[in-house]
């Protein structure tokens, strides 16, 4: 048998989440994930998941090797849907935006040769931007949406300017 895996421990609301990357896929300790969800997760309660969404591995748990039920990233999201509570939205967001990227970045430290993905957010839309070789890149399929929005903004700006102008001339002169 091989050595136990050493997980990364994350903390949310003073509760630990033991997680690790296996075959470049994030896996979460079912017991910890269940506590964060407010639901007891064990072999029986995770039977609704597919076989590739759960597995038992030997983890270094508080310094001791222990067999732990682990849930894959897709399994964790499925459980969040099956056992929905309003707080699970924040948990899903935390897993997606903090835990998973941290696990992946620990394995592959950022280098200048590695592309980085970011999100540009405007009030009217969001757009993915890839940073690579000191340049920003936008997906070709996003360009028509970007151009249509820009054309629409120009037209609406002209209309509002035109409306202002016509309203100005429609005003009756004031007598002083």
Automatic annotation (TrEMBL):
Q: Which domain of life is it from?
A: Bacteria
**InterPro entries membership:** BRO_N_domain
PROSITE patterns, A to Z: BRO_N
Residue stretches making up the Bro-N domain: 2-107
Q: What is this protein called?
A: Prophage antirepressor
**Which lineage?**
Bacteria, Pseudomonadati, Pseudomonadota, Gammaproteobacteria, Pseudomonadales
């Amino acid at each position: 048998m091989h050595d136990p895996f050493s997980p990364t421990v994350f903390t949310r609301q003073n509760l630990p989440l033991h997680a690790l990357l296996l075959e470049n896929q994030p896996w979460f300790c079912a017991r910890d994930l269940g506590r964060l969800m407010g639901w007891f997760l064990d072999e029986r309660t995770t039977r609704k998941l597919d076989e590739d969404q759960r597995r038992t591995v030997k983890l270094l748990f508080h310094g001791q090797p222990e067999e732990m039920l682990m849930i894959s990233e897709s399994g964790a999201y499925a459980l969040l849907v099956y056992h929905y509570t309003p707080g699970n939205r924040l948990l899903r967001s935390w897993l997606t935006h903090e835990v998973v990227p941290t696990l992946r970045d620990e394995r592959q430290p950022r280098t200048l040769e590695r592309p980085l993905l970011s999100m540009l957010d405007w009030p009217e839309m969001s757009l993915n931007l890839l940073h690579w070789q000191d340049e920003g890149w936008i997906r070709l399929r996003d360009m028509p949406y970007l151009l249509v929005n820009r054309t629409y903004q120009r037209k609406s700006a002209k209309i509002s300017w035109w409306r202002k102008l016509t309203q100005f001339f429609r005003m009756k002169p004031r007598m002083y």
